[in-house]
Amino acid sequence: MTDLKAVAGKAIGLLDLTNLNDDCTPEDIVSLCARAQTPHGNTAAICIWKEFVAQSKDLLNGSGIRIATVVNFPNGGTDIEAVTGEVEAALAS
């Protein structure tokens, strides 16, 4: 019989949790980061707006959970200089 807890733990470690809602708040990020850390293992990553990268970094410190963000999203119509600035700001966070 398969050890379902082990399988669940492995599956959780392959997932990311995402909040790219237009109305995302710092409180939503606290909740997302808490949900990413489970008794059965942590998710691989969270995906959030760039404005929340620094907050998430503090909340996930030492957890091994990666932080993914988006730029020039969702429409992709921003000029290259602005996108470059978004990327640099996200990396600095």
Annotation keywords:
93 residues; alpha/beta; three-stranded parallel beta sheet; two-stranded antiparallel sheet; 4 helices; elongated
Q: Whole-Å distance between the termini?
A: 45 Å
Helical percentage: 40-55%
- Largest sheet data: 3 strands, parallel
- Based on helices, strands and strand pairing, what is the structural class? alpha/beta
* Count of β-strands: 5
C-alpha Rg (nearest Å)? 15 Å
- Number of DSSP helices? 4
Shape: elongated
- Strand numbers in spatial order across the main sheet: 1-4-5
Low-confidence stretches: none
Summary, kept brief:
The protein contains four helices and five strands. The protein is an alpha/beta fold and 93 residues long.
Secondary structure blueprint with pairings:
Elements: H1 4-12, E1 16-19, H2 26-35, E2 37-38, E3 41-42, E4 45-49, H3 53-60, E5 66-70, H4 80-92
Parallel strand pairs: 1-4, 4-5
Antiparallel strand pairs: 2-3
Helix pairs in contact: 2-3
Structure description:
The chain is α/β, with parallel strands linked by helices and 93 residues long. The protein is 43% helix and 19% strand. It has helices spanning 4-12, 26-35, 53-60, 80-92; strands at residues 16-19, 37-38, 41-42, 45-49, 66-70. Strand 4, helix 3 and strand 5 form a beta-alpha-beta unit. The longest helix is centred in the last third of the chain and has 13 residues, at 80-92. The protein is elongated and about 50 Å long.
